[in-house]
Amino acid sequence: MKKRLYIIAGEPSGDFLGSFVINKLKTMHDFEITGIGGKFMEEAGLKSLFDINEISIAGITEIIPHILKIKKLINFTVNSILKNVPHVLLTIDSPGFCFRVAKLIKKKNPSIKLIHLVAPSVWAWRSKRAVKLAKLYDHLLTLFDFEPKYFIKHNLKTTFVGHPAIEKFENSDNVKSNTVLLLPGSRTQEIKLLLPIFLEAVKSIDTDRIVISTLPHLKPLIKSMLVSQKMEIISDEEKKAALYRTAKLAIVSSGTATLQLALSGCPMVVCYRLSWISYAIIRALVKVDYISLVNIILNHSVVPELIQNDCNADFITKIANSIDIEFQIENFKKLRTRLMSGNIPPSEKIAQIVKDTEVAPYSATIKEAESVL
After folding, report:
1. CA 265 to CA 170: how far, in whole Å?
2. Is the pLDDT at 31 greater than 50, yes or no?
3. Beta strands in the chain (DSSP E)
4. What CATH architecture does domain 179-337 belong to?
């Protein structure tokens, strides 16, 4: 009998991770895979229940107008899972959405094993989430080596698996070109806030070529914001990876892209903005000194971070023109070992854990599950 996996990723970074898992599982075991994902997971063969851009929203106040819609999508997702009656539900990141889905599934069909990939950043804020997670999930898989200790103490089975980005992005000794990359984020609201600032800043940076790296569905929005049509927009993943290895500098929104750039040896300036209310709330709660994953993992100020007021064209230009490229590149070399768990590639380790998860007999047949919808 085929083993059923239901997989959920609610934002582009999780979609990227999910695609590695699906591709690896397809080579390892006879799985029937359904769920929710974006471009990457669909390219790996998943037919998504709905477009993940409907739930990919950053910030606190930013999510308020979408609450009712997201609540409907949570119920829609729960009903879909109960109809499929999977052996394992693998949720990836997106705690606001995934944890609510998992909670309802645990209540309605506790025989479904719950695994979560990407630990919530309890080391940065809202540490009590570790307790809640321990009561909800059967297994937590972390991307970073310093995270398991925060969850194991609450008796949650936790495994450091590493970050699949190391399987795709690799540094090279290529001579750097005079290209500047702009990565304004993977969400609409991020692009609207950051891209105008990035475009103004790059006017005073010495470069022969400006390239904006984005996702396919965001290209129309970016094109509508450009004054000069000479700027290039790329969404092809192979072209991105090649440019990350050769660009002299990236101006990037804080997120997974910072890791991808660092693994490729691309110097960067990290920027971010939220609404003032969201920023004030998060600032009052956050306990770490850095926002970029590069600095957090290395526990050192390797890449400059410009947040809120400091995220302006003048500051970005000033920092970009005085950046210590060699210092960044030398420190980036330390990242790869921190993102690898032993000699097994992260995607293989994740897939193996999913494959080996022992499943209990179903507490409901498909017909019985439909009866509770």
Report:
1. 8
2. yes
3. 3-9, 31-36, 88-92, 113-117, 139-142, 158-160, 179-183, 209-213, 232-234, 249-253, 268-272, 305-307
4. 3-Layer(aba) Sandwich (3.40)
Please give the structure tokens belonging to residue 9: 């990723």
For the record, the structure tokens of 39 come out as 């471009």
Q: How far apart (Å, rounded) are the C-alpha atoms in residues 5 and 203?
A: 49
Number of neighbours of residue 243 by Cβ within 10 angstroms:
22
Mean pLDDT across 9-33: 91
CA distance 89 to 106: 10
* pLDDT score recorded for residue 365: 42
Integer CA distances (angstroms), 64 to 52, 58, 209, in order: 17, 11, 39
Model pTM score: 0.87
Tell which CATH classification among 1.10.645.10, 3.30.43.10, 3.40.50.2000, 3.30.420.10 matches the domain 3-162+340-371.
3.40.50.2000
DSSP H or E segment with residue 55: none
User: What are the φ and ψ backbone dihedral angles of 295, each rounded to 5 degrees?
Assistant: -70, -40
Size of the chain, expressed as the number of residues it contains = 373
Strand partners, 212: 182, 233
Q: At residue 62, does pLDDT exceed 60?
A: no
- Residue 301 CB contacts under 8 Å (≥ 6 apart), including other chains: 290, 295
